[in-house]
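Sample intake sheet
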Amino acid sequence: MRSVEIKHELRDPELAIAALRGLRAINVGTTFQVDSCYRLSSGRLIQRVIEGEPTEWIAYHRDDSPQARVCRFTVYSEDEAHNRFGTREIPVWTQVRKRRELWITGSVRVHVDMVDRLGWFIELEALVSPKQNAGKCRQLVEAVRNQMRIALGEAISVSYSDLSTEAAIEH
């Protein structure tokens, strides 16, 4: 699967929620996620644990860029991940804990994230499909970003796992 996504620091979560309501976004709900992150020879792998839901493994490839960018990903169940990556324990690179509110406006998913030790962030994501190519997804993501600009901080070019590792080194 492919998506187009962009991540920003979030200056004001309450203002972001107000902007989402102004866009008539639908609040899908809030989850608490623990992502165990692994480095692969090509790309990354995350084991995502959400209480009350099946564990997911997400393998992905994405350029580190502050612009809206294409992400190629595959979501695996626990059994599928063991078949694909083996049952041998892989060393965890880092772990990211976050509270995530999911909102949807049109075909754009908006993640309002409070990440332990890092702070507030927002991710905008649109899935690429036969009806919605990457160029269209980029336009949709940019349109939502422009509507929310007042609440946004700097664009983030890297993953939460990278930010988490940098924060650990600084302390």
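Comment: The chain has one domain: 2-170. The first strand starts at residue 2 and ends at 10.
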